[in-house]
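ok so for the tutorial part 2 we go from a plain amino acid sequence to predicted C-alpha cells. step 1 is just haveing the sequence, like this:
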Amino acid sequence: MASDSFQYRALFEYKRERGDDISLQPGDLLTVPKASLMAVPGRDYQDGDERSPKGWLHGTNERTKEKGDFPGTFVEYVGVVRVGPPAAKSWPRPVPPTPGGLQSAVGAQPPGAAASGVEAELLSEAAPVVVWRLIEAIEKHGLNSESLYRAPPASSGPAELRQALDSDPVSVDLDPYDVVSLSDALRGFLQDLPAPIIPSTVYSELVYSAQESQSVEECGERLKRILECPSIPQANHQLLVHLSRHLALVSQLSQAGPRLLGQAFAETVFKNSPLSADVNPEHHVRILEALITTGGLMEMQAAPGV
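step 2 — the prediction. this is what the C-alpha cells look like for a chain of 306 residues:
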C-alpha cells in the first residue's frame, strides 16, 4: 500500500548541500514513505525498486528527526515500516559520487552501476581510430560548411564507407566522400557503438558537476578533471579527446555554437550511459557544451621513464 514506508541505514557520511537536504552519519536510520518514491516524475516505480534506491530519496532521519533529501546511493535497504505519505518531489537531482567508490563492497549499487549489463561489452580499440579518421577528413573538407551538424543526419553514412571503416579504418581512402557523407558516418558510427562512450565509473559525477556548477566554464574545468581519471578505459578517453576537440574547433570556425553542438551530439554520446533514462537530458547537453566551451579534452601524457 502507498501508506507503507521503507527504512534505510546510512553507509556513508553526507553533508547537507542545500536547504532541503539532510545530513547523514554512518548508521543513521532513514524512513522513506513509499508514496514519495511513487510520486517522483519520470520514474516508473516497480515493487522491489526500493531495495536498490537510485537518485535522491525524501524522508526522515530518525536520529535527528530532520526531514529532507539525501542520496539513495549512500544508504542500504533495511525493511518496511508504516507512516503517512509526504508531498511529491520535482525532477530528481543527480546524486553525488559515492565516497571512495566503496559502496559496491558492502552490497549496494554505486552511482551509475550497470545493473542491466549494458557495459558487458567495452569499446574496441578501433573505435577511436574510426572517429579520428572521420574527423580528420571532415576538418580537411568541411569546416567551412555552414550546415555542419546543424541538422539531424539524413542517414548513418554510405554503406560502403561504413564497411570499409569496420574492416580497415587506418587505410580507407576518405577523399572521395563529401562532408555530408562523412559527418553522417561519424554520427552513425557513434550511434551504433554497442558500449557506453561515457564509462559508468564517472557518469554520475559528470552529471552531478553539470547540475551543480555555477558557470559553463567552471563546469568544463571540473568535467575535464573527472575525465582525466586513470580508471577510464583508454579507448573511451581517446574517443572523447578526438570528438570534444573537434567540436571545439567547429564551434570556433562556424556558426554552430557549443550549445547547438551539445544538443546535436548529446543523445548519441549518452545513448548507452547507465541511468541516463532517469536523468534530465539537459544535463547531458550541458556536459558537452561545457567541454566544447573549454576547448575539449587533452591527450593524456605518458609517464616519463625512470
